[in-house]
Amino acid sequence: MLDALWDLLDQAISNIGWAQYLIYIAFLVVGVIFLVKFCDIFVDAASAIAQKLHVSPLIIGLTVVAIGTSCPELAVSVSGSIQALINGTTANIAIGNVVGSNICNLLLVLGFSCIFTPIVVKKSICKREFPFLIGITALLVILALFFSFNGYPYGIARWEGIILAVFIPIYIFFLIYNAKKHPEEQDAVEEVKDMPLVKAIIFTLIGIVGIMLGGEFVVYGAQRSAVNIAVSCGLQREMVESLVGLTIVAVGTSLPELVTSIVAARKGQNELALGNVIGSNIFNTIFVLGISATICDLGTLNNQMWVELAVMMAATLLVFILSLRGKLEKKHGFILIGMYVAFLVYLVIRTILVR
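Above: the chain sequence. Below: its structure as tokens.
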């Protein structure tokens, strides 16, 4: 249904020249706004429903709220997978979105958080959460690099997506078990907004619809912008699409983490930023990629994708090594942001040179 509407829109704006770029950008911006706003609505309403069902606030925070921060990435990736499944092709935006979002979380979100105020790293994070993140990131790199399929040099096939998805209940059980075993290590749980059950159900449905629409808008705006830029500048379409997914879409879908970290920093609770980023990256990998790849094979013709995967792995290990000191300081923030800027410069230069 939506594909038919997008085709009609393409026909309607195909002859208006450069102004069509503004329309694509508008869809991209509106899509990101939808994702961020309706993600908040969904999390608040779903948390209220869980509370009505007498689920403990701690478990709500570890599951509903944690998964909610990955809803933007999930919406964009699943939308791309569903479109590819309908068209009989292979989705290629999901991998770039998740890898780019994970890199953005580690380098940009944490970098800004460190600059606001130093992050005190709990020993428990280095002993438990970080090893899980490193392991799942390494698994993703291995699956993406060493198991090609259907002529795609890199990607996540359906069977690999199922492997990643299996870790979803394992990780949730891991979170709940640790929370109950070490209650003294848990951060204060935010108060769940109270609302009538009927209102909460309606708002949950509104949130889901809004997130789905936001995902469709972002995918449409990103893909059409990439195609037109590639055609106009004589660049390789796959490289431009990869650039858009790794930068604009990735940063846009990471806004919830960025906003949460900045707000926490201003409240003097900047130690929450590291746990937020680790949890988000784990959910992005097993939840977003796992579900997206289970729907449809995720492949990319970008034969330079190994660079992005290597940067993601290197950023994960770097943050872990810095965290072993017990504190992430302002100088570390500048290092992380500097690495992200260098990564963006590399992506732009590569896109221009590879024709």
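The chain has 13 helices and four strands.
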